[in-house]
Design brief:
This protein has 281 residues and is α/β, with parallel strands linked by helices. It has three domains: 87 residues, Cobalt-precorrin-4 Transmethylase, domain 1; 82 residues, Rossmann fold (3-Layer(aba) Sandwich); 92 residues, Cobalt-precorrin-4 Transmethylase, domain 1 (3-Layer(aba) Sandwich), CATH 3.40.1010.20. The chain contains nine helices and twelve strands. The model has no long low-confidence stretch (mean pLDDT 93).
């Protein structure tokens, strides 16, 4: 089978940095914890766990040691708790997420009601919420009614959202009864580039594969966008999950991967797919 890999896919700089910091910390420290999974990829998490990294959700479970702040960041309150307990902190927060946190804080100081376009349950969004009081999370059009009573709005966005969704929500917010609206583009350029490359590729192939964690927001977004243009789009974590029956009758496959998907997962999938004869059952 012919296989085409998207020009932009796999680890982004923020994820690569978080993994490097975790590996370096594990090599020199004992009792190393990450506050939540360090990235949204079970294969990488499993590998780091085997090296000694313990993923925990509650700071109270830590007795002593070093705490790694994952790439998605942590709330201001969580950072405060960790420091109060005297644990060593290794901050692997993506620089773009830190930028969103700082902007939220600044907008509040300037007198704006802060609204964040994104998925409320996503750890990046949760990590931003504590940097300004009462940030309103806008997931879809239904949430925009929450902004009716505010006149001075400052809008930011989860870094991994698509430009299309960001623009759609801004257009809807612009129809509310505000007196002043300040919009700051906090989208990740790497994520946007991956989305653009994936859309271009999925239009050229018979079948499209999106590789990455099923609970990875940026990977799900890639799959969601590709499905709009190619119905035969499949989101898988690795080659083992593939039902080979879906390959028959397709001659050209496209592959892209989320920002938290390691290169070896991509390479393994490509190698196996190239060896597959889709004309023989």
């Amino acid at each position: 089978m012919k296989v085409i890999v998207a020009k932009s896919s796999g680890f982004c700089p923020g994820v690569r940095n978080a993994i490097t910091m975790a590996e370096e910390t594990l090599a020199g420290e004992k009792n190393v914890y990450s506050l939540g999974e360090i990235i949204h990829n079970k294969d990488v998490v499993k590998k780091l766990s085997a090296a000694g990294l313990k993923s925990i959700e509650k700071i109270g479970k830590i007795k002593s040691g070093t705490v790694i702040i994952r790439s998605h960041g942590a709330t201001a309150e969580q950072i405060k708790q960790i420091r109060q307990k005297g644990f060593k902190i290794v901050d692997a927060t993506c620089v773009l997420v830190k930028r969103v946190q700082k902007i939220a804080k600044l907008l509040h100081r300037q007198g704006y009601k802060v609204a964040m376009i994104g998925d409320k349950g996503h750890p990046e969004v949760q990590a931003v919420l504590g940097y300004a009081p009462g940030i309103v999370v806008i997931g879809d059009r239904k949430d925009i009614s929450k902004l009716k009573k505010y006149r001075k709005l400052g809008v930011i966005c989860q870094t991994t959202q698509s430009p299309e969704h960001f623009a759609e929500m801004i257009a809807a917010i612009a129809q509310t009864h505000f007196s002043e609206l300040k919009v700051i583009n906090t989208l990740c350029k790497e994520a946007v580039k991956r989305q653009s490359c994936a859309i271009q590729l999925c239009k050229r192939v018979d079948i499209m594969f999106i590789l990455g964690g099923l609970h990875s927001a940026n990977t799900r977004k890639l799959a969601e966008l590709c499905k709009k243009y190619n119905k035969k789009t499949f989101h898988l974590q690795n080659w083992k999950e593939l039902d080979k029956n879906i390959l028959f009758g397709n001659n050209v496959a496209g592959i892209t991967a989320g920002a938290s998907t390691p290169q070896w997962i991509i390479d393994d999938f490509v190698e196996n797919l190239r060896r597959f004869d889709s004309k023989k059952k």
